[in-house]
Each structure stands twice: as structure tokens, then as C-alpha cells.
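Re-running Cardiolipin synthase A to confirm reproducibility after the cluster update. Everything else is unchanged from the original entry.
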Amino acid sequence: MITFYTITNWLLIFSYWLLIAGVTLRILIKRRSVPFAMAWLLIIYTLPLLGIVAYLSLGELYLGKLRTKRARTIWPSTAIWLRNLKSHQDFYDKKNSDIAQPLFQLCEKRQGIAGVKGNQFELLTTSDSTLKTVVQDIQLAHSNIEMVFYIWQPGGLADDVAKAFIEAARRGVHCRLLLDSAGSVEFFRTDWPSLMRNAGIDVVEALPVSLLRIFLRRMDLRQHRKVVLIDNHIAYSGSMNLVDPLFFKQEAGVGQWVDLMARMEGPIATAMGIIYAGDWEIETGKHIPPPPILNHPILPLKKTNDHTIVVIASGPGFPEEIIHQALLTVIYSSRKTLIITTPYLVPSDNLLHAICTASYRGVDVKIVVPRHNDSILVRWASRAFFSELLEAGVKIYQFEGGLLHSKSILVDGQLSLIGTVNLDMRSLSLNFEITLVIDDNKCGRELARIQNKYISQSRLLDALLWSQRAYWKRIIERLFYFFSPLL
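Result of re-run:
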């Protein structure tokens, strides 16, 4: 009996260390960044069993077998349609500014689509104006409406959008709605999904969260896009979820969320529709055919004050690391000014180096972040980067007018980036995200006006005072910094 227990004990110990070694080897083989690998190894060796479970469920970018299979089939078929578009010179803009040229070349090479011209563009700076304008456009829709959001929370003006959406479906407009399961959990607990489905709207819960799926798909991989498409001609995107700030996260104590959205008219809606079709097929297996190229309003009309826009999409099934590469490209392209607004500042080492290098090169770099954040983890982790940024001469502004949720970058007053991407590893390498790039100094002046308004409501971080902060705060910052690759 003693021999049996001894053998069993040694077998358990051997199996335990074999499991540890196997997961360690898996982390090393994946060839991730050193900080990412070290953070996971620390977790696994400090909390072995819990760490292994955490890594197997959260450590790798795994979409699931079925969704991965669908994702692999999307871009080859889409690429054929995009190549056919290249024969229509009126669709793409071949002339870009010197600042935009490197980024547009990257996008054309990696995703098959560069700058689309002939678009009308408008920035919406308040949630009220955005939601009311969306309602008006929905009421005028006659063909199709597609939406995808990370969060849809009922209440206030968000209900007006829902009612208009339902009425559109009842009068024969083809309506599709894709909502992230985790972000929109409250929405799916209400009667709205049933009301919408009964009206004829295709409502899909993206990436369902369930303990039963924990080892079948990475649970924190989320559908983070915010897009509204109407009649293949009108498009919205930006940082705002479909929520009324008066009813959203009031208990967080950070004030109302401040967002920035873009409303566009023109062929860019078709380019964004291609991305939506990919998301829809990955989640449902149903293919949305692209609109015909000939005799279709996707081809731009010559208008005054039109804009050239490129849309960049990231996430499983889309070009890997393209958002990260795009951000690095525009930062290194900056010559005079670089203004960044982001709610979550936990950049990769490469991005941090690029921002600091820009400042050392003489670029006037300004970063605007909220003074109070809804995420304690991100709040402390982001502060770990402040010292290095301040030493490089970067100006850091802490916004005091609520939770600044706008995600924007303005390069030399010419190149504007607006979208859903936070400067953290989750947005850069994990979630489904979308970014709009506008090569136009008129748009740049408008974005600069908005960003300067944010700065006027912010407090400039004093480098000397920051260097004198309490030692215990530095310890917490470094602790969370170590786990920043996982945030």
C-alpha cells in the first residue's frame, strides 16, 4: 500500500511538472514578445494550476475551430472583388500627401484597399447629436441597415434608435445587428432582442460568453467595433457605443463618457460594408455578397469638399498586426505635431519608443488621457509609462471633463485617425477593431479644434511634481506595468 501511494505521489508530481514544462514550451514556441512571455511565465510559476488554466483560456489568440475556418475563407474571396475595383480609377485616390503616402501604401499592400475618394465627412462631438442623427438616417433608410457595437445599453436616446430600427424593419428595410455578448450583456437581458427579432431584424450575439466554451475559444477576445451602415451609402464609426451617457455607468464615478464619431456619405460605406460582411460571416456562417461594381452608387460622384478615407480593420481573420503597424507608420511619419487622445494608455514597447523618438526628433507630442478611469488596472498600468514619456518631452494632459473615451490621432494637422482602437495590447493585437484615416487638412483642422477643446478641459502633468510622487505609488505602477502585455 505504501508503495502504491509512493508511486501515485511521484506520478502526480511528474505529471504536474510535465504540464508546467509543456505550457512553458508552448509559450516559448509561440514567439511572443519578451514582456508578454515573461508576464505569463511569472503567473504560471507563481500560481501554477490557476496560471495554467488562465493561460489556456486567455493566453492565446484562438477564435475557435468553426470561426477560424470561416475567417480563413473570407479574405481570398473578398480580395478578388477588391482587385476588380482597381480597374475603376474613380474609386481609389492615387494622390496622397507626403505624410499619408507610407500609411496608404501599407494598407493597399496588406488589406488590398487604400484611400477611397469622393466621400462627405462630418465629425460628431456629442452623444446627443450622434444618436439623433442616426435616428434621422434610419428613418430615411429604404434598402438595408447594418450595425455592430461592443455595447448597446437601453435607456434614453438609445431607445429612440431601437424604436427607429424596428420601424425600419417593419417597412421592409433589411436590418442586421451584431452585438458583443460580454459588452451588451444588459441588452440581451431585456425585451429589446425579442422585439427586434419579431420585427424582422437579424439580431446576433457575437462571441457568446460561457464557462463551457472557456477552453474552446479565448473568452476575452471581443467584438469591439462601432459601426452603422445605411443603404450602402451612409456610414458611422468612432469611439461611441450605442448608449446614452446619462444612463451609462453612472455608478463608476468618473463622469459622463466623452466620445467622437464620424458620419460619412460615399463609397467608404461600401469599404466598411466589406468588413461588416466578414464579421457577419465569421459569426453566423452566412455570406453577405458585395454590391455589384457597375451601375452602382458605390462609385463616387465628383463633389466639392470631398475626402479621401481609408478604413483599417483588425482582428482574427484580418491582416495580422495591421493596426499596430499603421500606428507606428504614422507616428514615425510625423514631422511637426502629434496629438493623441485615448482613454487607455498601455502601449507596446515599440509604440512607446516611437512616441518618445518623435518627441526627441523635435515633434510637438501631446497625449490627452482621462484623469479618472473606469478601469483600476489600466489606470495604474498607464501611469508606469508617464515617466519615460515626460523625460522625452511629451506633454501629458489629464482630461477633467468626464471620462474621455475618444480615440484619435492627428499628425501634422493633415492626417487624422479616428476609430475604436485604444492604445493598449488588447486593441492592438486581440479585439475586432476599426480605424478611419482621413488625408485632408480641412478635416485635420476640425479634429485639432476638438482635441484643443479637450486640452482646454485638462490639466497638464508637471514632470517635476510627477517625479516627486510617493514611493508606494511607484511600486504599484511597476507591478501593473509588468502585467501590461496582458491588459
